[in-house]
Design a protein that fits this description.
Alkaline Phosphatase, subunit A; 8-stranded mixed sheet; alpha/beta; 2 domains; globular; 14 helices; Immunoglobulin-like
Length: about 575
Amino acid sequence: MNSPFARGTIALFLLVAVSGSASPASASERPPNILFIALDDLNDWIGCLGGHPQTLTPNLDRLAASGVLFTNAHCPGAACNPSRTAIMTGLSPHRSGLYDNGQKMREILPDAELLPQHFRNHGYRAFGSGKILHYFIDARSWDEYFPEKESEDPFPRTLYPEKRPVSLPRGGPWQYVETDWAALDATDEEYGGDWLVTKWVGEQLSQEQKEPFFLACGIYRPHEPWFVPAKYFDPFPLEDIQIPPGYKEDDLDDLPPAGKKRGPNRYFAHIREHGQWKAGIQGYLASIHFADAMLGRILDALENGPHADNTIVVLWSDHGWHLGEKQHWQKFTAWRAVSRVPLMIRVPEGAAPGFSQGTKPGTVCDRPVNLLSLFPTLTELAGLPAKADNDGPSLVPLLKNPEAEWPHVSLTHLGEPGSFGLSAQGWRLIHYANGDEELYDIGNDPHEWHNLAPDPAHAGKLSELRALAPTEFAPLKEPSLEALPALTWIPARSGKATPPSRPDGNPFDVTFLNQRENPVELFWMTRDGDRKSYGLIAPGKTRRQQTRPGAVWQVASPENGEPLGHFVVGDRKARAEVPDSN
């Protein structure tokens, strides 16, 4: 397979006793600690990356100024699950087959060794708090977690409004329920959430730790919903809000069919219809400002604690976010609004074996890098054996010299095999599985407004970038029935009448499972409230049925047609279990 990553052998650093002539104080007598900080859904709207002129991120800027800021860093996947799985396993989606949020990591990769486990295997204590993986903790990979790792729920209590939605009415069953925003009349402590996460992590940093540690801190904001205390909204008066610098009204005109399909979505149209565009931007800016304040708590705890001189700090975001660019809202695209993410690394002087000088404050690197490189970078910095199946090259050469020769490109995969964005030095190629392509000269067109792929003058550049892309892609591994979310069964005896269908959104499959001892008959409810039979489901058997958000499916006795209950389809693939009794 033609890999986009040049796979050199990562040198194995052995921890040795420090001689009397060794340089600074020798933190190398003890392996360096790792502070691993993630923010969720954060694009380049931070001060040092210049993504939006109104953003307020003093602590992100402070961390960037203290180490190396990568200004051309990209995520492995355009959604939470594939990106976080790739980062934590070191395996690219096109090799693992995990491309989509609906897949389960441990179902697809049951034996994968995660980053904290690798450090545990080599004498580290691994502990953490907050969202690091996609809505689960993977308890077996950690020594300790908050909330407790056995819960597999990474979220502490968080204050939300009692009545929702607050600002954005739901447009239909297709709409993600968390797409909403509002300022809350609450203190940080009353709010909980990331405040509790950073409180716990800060307490660990303030204590003397007997063992070298890998400490993870997953800050959930600015992930939706954008509910944070009101003081974080105050710096962004609604009347002063500016639309994204990357927005261009006719930006879809020069896209190929696959790009035009990927760009406009119902969220942005719905938000504009309700006059909520600037309010949504305000909510995102406020949530970033809140996340930045939570980061400040962590940095303060580290700097005022006993581990400041021997802790490597890395900060990243799993992917970016559209707020109207390309007529799109959310993620799930290969454009730079999603692929480009913050990445900062700080290595104290004398902390890392083989890198005694540490990172130079204020260093900026514009080489195209990928978060897949975090696994090999951290093992090399800590002097640990490399994990043999990592897909990304170590970033240590760039930490030492940001202008070092860098023959690598960076890939961001979409939800289907063969669709990806490729970031090179100054250029980006977007390739869709159907063969459609886009080409952008990022040096002159940072917002990707001018698709150069159809221009014969750039055929050479297209060929050059295509040659750097993978030629083989692991197939997308479908989740098992057990891994799918379950629809709510509403029994007929509850007295709730079966409503008509209100289908609204893109089609997907729902799998019906008959757990009764007798056959059942499956009916689709029409918009008029009539029902249309889709046949029988035998006892213990399943039926995979294409449907849409808002569709209603009734289950009845085939003997007399008497309804047994019904399901209302949500916004994603699911399973619908007909229980053995009402």
